[in-house]
Amino acid sequence: MVSKTPTKFSESTTPKSARRRLRKKPSPLKSLIATPSAVAASIDRSLRSCRRRLIKIFSCLGILGTPKSRKHGFRRLKTVPHDDPTPPAAPIPLPPPSCPGRKTVILDLDETLVHAKTDPPPERYDFTVHPVIDGQVLTFYVLKRPGVDELLEEAAKAFEVVVFTAGLREYASLVLDHLDPGGQIISHRLYRDSCKEMEGKFVKDLSVMGRDLDRVVIVDDNPNAYAFHPENAVPVAPFINDLGDRELRKVMKFLEVAPVFEDTRDAILHISQIVGIRNPRFELGLLHFCFMIFTD
Q1: How many CB atoms are closer than 10 A to CB 194?
Q2: Which residues fall in a compositionally biased region of kind Basic residues (predicted)?
Q3: What is the CATH number of domain 56-79+100-294?
Q4: Active-site residue, from 44, 83, 84, 110
Q5: In the predicted model, what is the mean pLDDT of residues 287-295?
Q6: CA distance 166 to 109
């Protein structure tokens, strides 16, 4: 199959920062006589900061709580600053959306919408494709994930649908022709040459697509793919051949809720709370997060 693939920077201790810590705390009296507007502004800033931190926490916990269908899990990439000097493989943004008011949903292909393998043929598959790669004709047996047709159809009603895959164009374009034979559902197709390669893994940089990040969501089974923008991700478990798989139902639930929110990242946080609240790893992570807040 085609291969698919953040660091915290601690502030160094300086004499200046040490002196700051030695300064006396403001007196309680001065705090009490602070203007109401200043207090309100401080509370508002704290709430906004906490909300963003929660979004990132829930995104990471969603990945941790997702069952793994592969024998070998993904190796998480180190965090790379968003202004990394290495240019993306294809920096050209997408054309303006045909429906400007719509949000954009970016779907991965392999192990998210379908699973494909080469010879020998598996017991179950829905169709075959025969791309020419490096001068050789290869046969891929493709199994569609349960609910993929319904997901694509429903997504196209309210969203701009983009498929962004780390797969080769020669292979992936043929698979997408089967999923969208009329070309009426998927607005844009992006392949491996539009990814950014980091440590041998392929990362999908959403910031170069020409879309506002508060109106974009990416659905992917590989956390490395959205390493730059975890708060924009709806993670799903990798699909291999489980015909009882229900992961795309979670995605469809998100599509029902997202239009209500101005910021898609808030919608992702909302869905994460609903889906993950009974997950033991979620609860452990939430306790750790609260401990960090109250001991900060």
Answers
A1: 23
A2: 17-27
A3: 3.40.50.1000
A4: 110
A5: 39
A6: 8
Binning the chain into helix, strand and coil, the percentages to the nearest 5 are 40, 15, 45
Q: Is 110 among the catalytic positions?
A: yes
Q: What is the dihedral of CA 12, 18, 20, 23, to 10 degrees?
A: 160
- Could you tell me the residue ranges of all domains in the chain? 56-79+100-294
Tell me the per-residue pLDDT of 90-146, one tens digit each, with 9 for 90 and over: 335 899 888 888 999 999 999 999 999 999 999 999 999 999 999 999 999 999 999
Mean pLDDT of 236-258: 95
- Residue 71's SS3 state is coil
Q: Which of 84, 108, 220, 245 is catalytic?
A: 108
Q: Measured between alpha carbons, how far is 185 from 194 in angstroms, rounded to an integer? A: 20
Helix ranges (DSSP H) in the chain: 15-22, 28-32, 36-64, 148-158, 169-179, 247-257, 264-276, 280-294
For residues 141 and 117, the answer to whether their CB atoms sit within 8 Å is yes
Distance CA 253, CA 193 (A): 31
pLDDT (tens digit per residue) in 189-229? 999 999 999 989 999 999 999 999 999 999 999 999 999 99
